[in-house]
Design a protein that fits this description.
Distance between the termini of chain A: 43 Å
Strand content of chain A: under 5%
Number of strands of chain B: 0
Largest interface: A-B, 57 and 33 residues
Structural class of chain B: mainly alpha
Number of strands of chain A: 0
Largest sheet of chain A: none
Helix content of chain B: 55-70%
Number of helices of chain A: 10
Helix content of chain A: over 70%
Largest sheet of chain B: none
Number of domains of chain A: 1
Number of helices of chain B: 7
Strand content of chain B: under 5%
Oligomer: heterodimer
Shape of chain B: rod-shaped
Bound molecules: zinc ion
Shape of chain A: globular
Radius of gyration of chain A: 19 Å
Structural class of chain A: mainly alpha
Order of helices and strands of chain B: HHHHHHH
Chain lengths: 200, 149
C-alpha cells in the first residue's frame, strides 16, 4: 500500500516535472496546465490577504506571470506549489506596503463571486439561530485575523484559508516549521478566544 | 482514556494540525465537549473564508497572464517595430543620397596633379609645415646628431 502511494506520488512529481520542463521550453499548453493546477490556491491566498478586489485580480495575474517568467529560477527546488505561494505572498506584501493598507479579510464577500460560506451554511442548515451565531463568529474571526501581526496573519491565512500543511507554509514563507508552529499557535489562540466568546 | 479535557494550549495545538500526545489524542477522539470546541472554531473559520471565485473569472485571469507570457502581443509589437524601421530608413534616404552624390566642387584630376607636383619638388614639405621640419631636421644640420630637444 505504502509502495503504491509512493509510486503514485512519484508519477505525480514526474508529471509536474514534465510540465515544468515543457513550460520552460515555451510550451503554452504545459504552462496553462501548471496554472490550472494552482490557480485556486493562489486566489485563496491573495483574496484572503488583500482587502481590495482590484488588487486581488492584479496580484493573482502578476503571480501567474512571474511564476512563468521565472521558471528557470525555480529549477525544481522544493515544490512548485510552495514556490508559487511564496510569489503570491511576496506580491501581496508589496501591494499592501505600496498602498499602506491595513490588510484585512473583507467583512462582506463580493457579490460577483460564487456563493459565500455563510450562504452555503444557510442553504444547508435549518437552524436560523445557529446560522446567526456562526455569522457572528465568522465576523469575529475576520476582525481578529485583521488585527494579527503580519506574519501570524500570513501563517493563519495559509493554514486555514488556503489549506496548506505546516511544511508547505514553512517552505512558502522561507522559515522553519518550528517558526510556523509558534506563529500559528499564537494566532489560533487569539482567534479561538474570539470564537468562543461568540459561540460558548 | 484520560478524563481530563484538553487545555487551551492542547486545543490550540490540535487546531494547528499538530500531533497530540497519545493520551490527549485518545481523549480528544472520544470527548464530545472537546470535539464541540474544535468544531465551533473550524466552523467559524470556514465561514470567514472569502467566497470562491467563478471558474470563468480565474480562466480569464489565467489567459491574460498566459497571453502576456507567451508574447501574444508580440506580433503587434513587431508591426510597430517594422513601421518604425521603415520610417527611420525613409528619413535616412536624403542623407544617404547626399553622401553618395559626387562632390561637384572637387575635381579629382586637379587634386592628384597638385599632390604630384608638391611631392616632386619636396616630399617633406608636402606633408608637414616648413617650421616643423626646421625644428626636427635643421637645414644644413646633422640629421643623426640628436633627437628633438
Ligand atoms: Zn474533553
Amino acid at each position: 500500500m505504502a509502495t503504491l502511494a509512493r509510486r503514485d506520488r512519484q508519477v505525480g512529481e514526474e508529471t509536474e516535472g514534465a510540465l515544468l520542463a515543457a513550460a520552460l521550453g515555451g510550451d503554452r499548453a504545459a504552462a496553462q496546465e501548471l496554472l490550472l493546477r494552482h490557480q485556486l490556491l493562489v486566489y485563496r491566498v491573495c483574496r484572503n490577504l488583500l482587502p481590495r478586489d482590484q488588487d486581488v485580480e492584479a496580484v493573482v495575474q502578476e503571480t501567474f506571470l512571474r511564476a512563468l517568467k521565472k521558471l528557470h529560477a525555480f529549477a525544481g527546488a522544493g515544490s512548485f506549489q510552495s514556490w508559487i505561494v511564496a510569489i503570491a505572498v511576496n506580491l501581496c506584501r508589496d501591494r499592501l506596503r505600496r498602498r499602506r493598507l491595513v490588510p484585512f479579510v473583507p467583512l462582506e464577500t463580493p457579490d460577483e463571486d460564487g456563493p459565500d460560506p455563510i450562504s452555503r451554511l444557510e442553504a444547508r442548515s435549518p437552524d436560523p439561530e445557529r446560522v446567526a451565531m456562526v455569522r457572528q463568529a465568522a465576523s469575529l474571526v475576520r476582525r481578529e485575523v485583521q488585527r494579527l501581526p503580519s506574519r501570524q496573519r500570513e501563517v493563519f491565512t495559509l493554514r486555514f484559508f488556503a489549506d496548506l500543511g505546516l511544511e508547505d507554509i514553512a517552505a512558502a514563507l522561507g522559515v522553519d516549521v518550528g517558526t510556523v508552529k509558534t506563529h500559528l499557535h499564537r494566532a489560533v489562540h487569539r482567534v479561538r478566544a474570539a470564537v468562543e466568546e461568540a459561540m460558548p | 482514556m484520560s478524563e481530563r479535557h484538553l487545555t487551551d494550549e492542547e486545543l490550540d495545538r490540535w487546531l494547528s494540525g499538530e500531533e497530540l500526545d497519545q493520551e490527549v489524542a485518545e481523549h480528544a477522539a472520544t470527548c464530545l465537549l472537546c470535539w464541540h470546541r474544535r468544531a465551533n472554531f473550524l466552523g467559524a473559520v470556514a465561514a470567514a473564508r472569502a467566497a470562491e471565485p467563478e471558474a470563468a473569472t480565474l480562466e480569464r485571469w489565467r489567459e491574460t497572464a498566459l497571453e502576456r507570457w507567451s508574447g501574444g502581443s508580440a506580433p503587434r509589437h513587431r508591426w510597430w517595430l517594422a513601421a518604425a524601421a521603415v520610417l527611420f530608413l525613409v528619413a535616412l534616404l536624403p542623407v544617404v543620397a547626399h553622401l553618395r552624390a559626387p562632390r561637384a566642387d572637387l575635381d579629382a584630376e586637379t587634386v592628384v596633379q597638385e599632390v604630384d607636383t608638391l611631392l616632386a619638388s619636396d616630399p617633406l614639405t608636402a606633408l608637414a609645415p616648413e617650421e616643423l621640419l626646421e625644428t626636427v631636421v635643421p637645414a644644413g644640420g646633422n640629421a643623426t646628431g640628436g633627437g628633438v630637444s
